[in-house]
Design goal:
By secondary structure, this protein is an all-alpha fold. It has one domain: Up-down Bundle (Amino acid/polyamine transporter I). Helix 5 packs across helix 6 and helix 12 packs antiparallel against helix 13. The longest helix has about 35 residues.
């Protein structure tokens, strides 16, 4: 849960609202559907064979050595970048209250805290993530209920009305191109749901827990993404919002603009816990993926070492060392750190989603050849796989035409670099 609701929604949505208006709601609904289909594809493989570093394992087993190598390392670097993004966002939330505190100082403090949490055992991690998620979930639901109350009890002078969703230029006020553009922007928010599969090897009953967690995703998307944004954009006409760039959250600024300061401060606290929750779950996933890569022989054997509680200490520490780069980034380029990170994250996420869907195609082909009926089949496969890949191709085109060329360039460059590293490593064996 924690990995699915974070900065992409609470902070990154500001630019999308300013660009595309209420059509952001449709964008999140479509992006959420695609994320759900991908999770069902990954879920079928996980329930069939719950293992540590599951995604990389499946690519390795059903597709080939290099796809397994690429999938594992891409997933790992993706969530290193996600962790850095969430940490950078934390500094923005802290600055809402204390603008004099340097971004790097906030980042360093929470970097130390979350690293120590992940060096504890799995139960301690689970407890911390549970409470962070509970705070976030409760608050978002409360915000939706409170916002709905404000809309239903509003007088004519307040301006709060569901008609704000279509009154200022329609649902898609800036045309079809901008409506489509939202799909690329919401990817950073929809990504992360698949992280629940990383805990499969340590779940007590994966055949029951994994399907339950995955099937709940669609309801979470409807409530937390579509529901929250519908309420927010009904409170104030989208074209009257004073959001700025990536420095301000629309969730906070809307209530501040309405003069409800206590709600703005409370929401800022909530989205701060949300960022920490995503960072926490991301670091957990990073360390387990590195552990899985070491088991495959695609990472140094030292990352297979665990303590008495089962925590892969070297894997956690190595991931932490890379994430520490976020502190340096916020020290040298505090103004541009977040935008740079988001651009790179979207590119890595595109590759991650594509590889999950392609690996699943290889998986179902193998299952058919062996005559095996899986316990948790993906929805509408292989048609859903084709839909996912078509969506990804559309995203790449949008990114290219809307100024995200750096993210598109990064994908083939990253694949080539990984192939060279793969060949070098395996030539020594």
């Amino acid at each position: 849960m924690g990995g699915a609701i974070g900065t992409g929604l609470f902070l990154g949505s500001a630019q999308v609202i300013q660009s595309a208006g209420p059509s952001i709601i449709l964008g999140y609904a479509i992006g959420g559907l695609i994320a759900f289909l991908i999770m069902r594809q990954l879920g079928e493989m996980i329930v069939h064979e719950p293992v540590a570093g599951s995604f990389s394992h499946f690519a390795y087993k059903y597709w080939g050595k290099f796809p397994g190598f690429l999938a594992g390392w891409n997933y790992w670097i993706l969530y290193i970048l996600v962790a850095m993004t969430e940490l950078t966002a934390v500094a923005k939330y802290i600055n809402y209250w204390w603008p004099h505190i340097p971004a790097w100082a906030s980042v360093l403090f929470f970097f130390i805290v979350i690293t120590l949490v992940n060096l504890g055992n799995v139960k301690f991690y689970g407890e911390s993530e549970f409470w962070l998620s509970i705070i976030k979930v409760t608050a978002v639901i409360s915000m939706i209920v409170f916002g709905l109350y404000l809309i239903l009890t509003a007088d004519a002078s307040s301006g709060a009305s569901f008609s704000n969703l279509w009154a200022a230029g329609g649902v898609g006020p800036n045309g079809f191109a901008r409506r489509v553009y939202t799909l690329a922007c919401v990817m950073s928010a929809s990504g992360g749901s698949e992280r629940s599969g990383m805990a499969a090897a340590e779940a007590e009953n994966p055949e029951k827990t994994i399907p339950k967690a995955i099937n709940q995703v669609v309801f979470r998307i409807l409530i937390f993404y579509v529901g929250a944004l519908t309420i927010l954009l009904s409170l104030v006409p989208w074209n009257q919002l004073e959001l700025g760039g990536l420095d301000k959250s629309p969730f906070v600024m809307i209530f501040s603009q309405l003069g409800i300061d206590w709600a703005a401060h409370l929401l800022n606290f909530i989205i701060l816990t949300a960022a920490l929750s995503v960072y926490n779950s991301g670091m957990y996933a990073n360390s387990r993926m590195l552990y899985g890569l070491a088991q495959q022989g695609n990472a140094p054997k030292v990352f297979m070492k665990v303590n008495k509680q089962g925590t892969p200490i070297p894997a956690v520490l190595f991931s932490a060392v890379l994430i520490f780069g976020c502190v340096l980034l916020n020290y040298f380029v505090p103004e541009d750190a977040l935008s740079h990170l988001i651009y790179i994250v979207v590119g890595a996420l595109v590759l991650n989603w594509a590889m999950i869907s392609l690996t699943h195609l290889k998986f179902i082909q193998t299952m058919k050849k062996q005559g095996i009926v899986t316990k948790f089949p993906a929805l509408w496969s292989p048609a859903s796989n084709i839909l996912v890949l078509a969506f990804i191709a559309t995203i790449l085109y949008i990114m290219w035409t809307q100024g995200f060329q750096e993210s598109v360039y990064m994908i083939p460059v990253w694949i080539v670099v990984m192939y060279i590293v793969f060949k070098l490593l395996h030539s020594k064996k």
